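Table S2 (continued). Query chain:
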Amino acid sequence: MLQIIPRKLPIALLSLLLCVLPLFTGLASEAQAAAQNVWHEQQITSTVLMVSPDDFGFNAETAGSNLFQHRVADTGNVQKQALQEFDGMVAQLRSAGIRVIRLPSRMDVKTPDAVFPNNWFSLHLLSPSERVLVGYPMLAPNRRAERRLGELGRRLAADGLPVGRAIDLSSSEQQGKFLEGTGSMVLDRAHRITYAALSPRTESSVLQDFAQKLQYRPVSFRSYDRGGVPVYHTNVMMSVGKRFAVICADSIRDQAERDAVLGELRRTGKHIIPITLEQMGTMCGNILELRSPKGPLIVMSQTAYDHFSPQQRKELQRFGKLMPVQIPTIEAIGGGSARCMLGEVF
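Corresponding output:
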């Protein structure tokens, strides 16, 4: 049998090891501490930006890719009704303890969709001291006029929320490539994943540009309505909260893409609440979790609330209080719902 006989180390070498070992131990401890203190973006916020629908109306420039829009014959009271719905939603959010920063629409140009600001900006707190503002390329020319990064930055600074850096992706409009903010992307901020249903308003190269600049991992796929038309925005077919996800998986026709999306949601610990194609059509996917002083709040339109089944509402209530808001005019004519009206501020 082979025996290994330990040999005595020279005293000088032993002394050197005893001096160096604490150094390596200290470096390992610092690395472990750094790993434990990695900054994660917050998934939910208690502050939102909303833009009043001062020039609200049916937008013919967006109707071609948004089948959720509906033209009405009598437009006489549309503006008044939209403002009443908006004011009611602002009051409801504030009464629940949500901080609402309100901006007026531009009145020097036509901006019929200004009530949906989440399509032209997003905010990211990448560290405790670094707030980043991102501006996005928009498909419809009259929607590009909504984009006011400078004005938004000044308003946030005045409210004690200064922006440290701005990233403007809007130059992609010149190449006919678009990415309409958190309409095109549903963000899992904590895990740095962006879910994106590719469509005329969501182009893969701009998605990759966003992901590279913000250090997100894109999960892209294709989503269709019952008639085979691409879903115009990802946030009408899915929503990701802190611990749950609502998704119309049936709209993802490719089995491999569907499995990939559902797999990511499961891997990140989300409780999945599936909705049907019919429920997607009634804006059940267009919901947003916020943080109120009394706990999580899940904001949705009354239409969406009414079309969730009792069991689905019960499941959602495990993760937060449900807040239905009355926005039927904005929803029907604008083709967007409660989530689209909320620009998250971190």
